[in-house]
Amino acid sequence: MRKDAKCNKKEYNPYLLTEIQPQGGIKFDERIIQKGDGFETIINLYDYPVQVDSFWLERLLTMEDVITTIDIGTANKRDILKKLEKSLVEQENRFYEDRSKVGQIQAKSTYQSLQGLAEDITNNGEIIKMVHIRYFVSAPTREGVESKTKEIIEKLESLGYRGAVLLNEQEYEWKSLFNGYLEQEKFLNKRRGKAIPSETLGGGYPFHYTKLDDPTGMFLGTTFTGGSVLFDLFTKTKDRMSYNAVIVGTMGSGKSTLLKKLVLNNAIQGQTIRVLDIVGEFKSLIHALGGKTISLDGSDGMINPLQILATITDDNTNEVDNKKSFMTHLAKVSMMYKFLNPDSDSDEQRQFESLVSNFYRFKNIDIEKCTEYEVREYPTMSELLKYIQSELYTNIELKIPKDNLTESHRKRLESIILNIESIVRDYGILFDGYSTIKDINKEQIISFELRNLSNFDERIFNAQIFSILTLLWNNSLVQGSKEMKAFNNGLKSTEDCTKYMILIDEAHRIINSNNIKSVEYLTAFEREARKYFGGLIFATQSIRDVAPANINNEAFEKIKTLFELTQYKFIMKQDNNVVSLLSEIFSGQLSENELNKIPYLKQGNCILSINGFDNIMFNVEVTKEELDLFKGGA
C-alpha cells in the first residue's frame, strides 16, 4: 500500500483528526477545561461505601446529562496480599490500643472484612479489580459547568460515594477518555483506581433493565427501567406464534397515539393495513401515508352481501375451498339476516338459509366455482326478494299465496319478505346492488370510516360491519395465500412476507354482549389469520365496555376467549372499578402488583403482556413530527 505523504511517521490520519479534534482549540486550566465551543470538567470518583447493593453500578452509570466512563484493570495478587497483611496488622493494633469502644468495634469489623477478602484471594481464586469511574461534565458557560458539577457531587454523596475535581490534573483526566486503564497508569499524575473484588464488581451489573428487542421491531417506547421497546406485531418465535392484540386505555391515556404509532410503524415496514375507524381520527394519518379512506355509509360504494367470497382454504394445498366457502357464506348471510331481524326464531333462520341456498342454484351459481364469478354475475338483494316472493305467491302483484303452504311456512315467508323489502327499500344504497368497492387489494393502506354509519339503526350498523369483516377476511386470505405459497417455495422468508393488519378502533361497538355473533366471527377470524400472516388489533377505552358487570356467563366466556387469542395485551390507564374485571379476563397474565398500578398509570404509560413472555411496563414515546402527523390523540 502506498503511504500518503501527508501522513506522519506514526501513520495517523490528519484528515480524521481535523474532523474529531476540539473545534477552536482546547486549554487546560487548573480546575476546568476551556474549549472553543464551551467548558468542561471531569469528576473523579475516589471513595466508595463499605457495603453496596446488587446492581450498585446502575445508579453510578446512569447520571443524566454527563458522559460516564468506567476503566477497569487487574491488580497484582502479590501486591494486594502484602497490602492486606499490612492493613490486618494495623487494624489488630488499633483494636488493642484504641480505648474507644466504638473505635474497637470499627477496627474489629474492618479486620473481619479484610480477613475474609484475604481468604477469598488465597483459597477461592478471588481477583481484585482496579476500578476508575469518571464523569465528564460540559456546558456552554463556566458557571453552567460549576453548577452541574456541584449537583453531581452532592448526588454522589447522597448515595454514599465521594467525588472531586482533581486540580491541575484535568489534562490527564481528559486524556483518560481515549486511553485504557494500562495506558492511564503511565500518566504523570499516577492515579490508580479503587480496589474492588471481582465478585462485587460483577454484582454491580448496570445493564439489568427490561427491554424488548424484536429483530424486525421499530421503536415504540422506553421501559420503566430504561430499556428500549423495539416491537413488531408480526414477530414469530417459539413463544409468539400469532399476531393478534388488544389495547385498552381511558380517554387521555395515550391509546390513540399508540394505535397511530403502530399503524405508522407497520406502514413503514410495507405491511397491508386496514382500519375500521369509528370517529374518523385516522383520516389525516392515512392520507399522509398515501392511503385511501372509504365511508361505509354507501357514499363511497357498496359491498354486495350476496357476493360469495373466498374465506376457507384447503389445509394441505392452501387453495380456496369453494364448497366450504359457500357454506361459510350461507352462514354469513343467515347471520346478517339475524342482525337485520333480531326477533327471528331458529325456524325462520333455517327457512331463510334454505331459501338463499336454493336461490343460488336458481341463478345457476356453480358451488364448485362459486367464488370465481365476476362481480356483476352475482345476484342482488332485490333479485332475492323477487325469488322469495315467488316462493310465497302464485301472483306477486296481487299477492295471492300458494295453496300448498302450511300456515307456519306462510308466516315465516311473509316475515322474511317484510324484512328484505325493508332493506331493499330503505337501505338499498348499502345492500342492494353489485359490489362497487373494488381494487382494494391494490391499496396498501385503507381506512373504513364508520362515523356516519354509526348513526344508522343498530341492526344496519351490525349487518354492514359484518359484511366488511367478511370482505377483509377474503382480502387477507387472498394476499396471505400468495405470501404463504412464496414462503413454502423458498422464495420469501417469514420476514419478507407482506403481513395483513386489521385495526378495529372503538371495538366495543362490535365486540359486546349484545353482539355475540360478531364475537364468534372475530374469534374464528383470529384463529385463521395467523396462517396467512394476518393479525387483528382491537382497541377500546374500557374493558367494561365489552364485558359489563351484568353479562351472562356464556357471553362472558366467549368474549374472554376472544381476548385469550390475542398474543399481545397493551393495557393503559383504567379506572379502579375495572381492575377485578381485568384480573378475570386476563387471568394469570397480570400480577397483583401490576393490576394495582393500572389505575395510576400516567399518560403514555403501558403494560404490555405477551403470552409466553415476561410483562413489560413502558412509556410510549413519540417525536414532535409524529405528533404533528397524528393530529390529535393523547
From TrEMBL:
Pfam families: P-loop_TraG. The keyword DNA-binding applies. SUPFAM superfamilies: P-loop containing nucleoside triphosphate hydrolases. GO terms for molecular function: DNA binding. Keywords: DNA-binding. InterPro entries: P-loop_NTPase, P-loop_TraG, T4SS_component. Residues 220-627 form the TraG P-loop domain. This is Type IV secretion system DNA-binding domain-containing protein. It comes from Terrisporobacter muris.
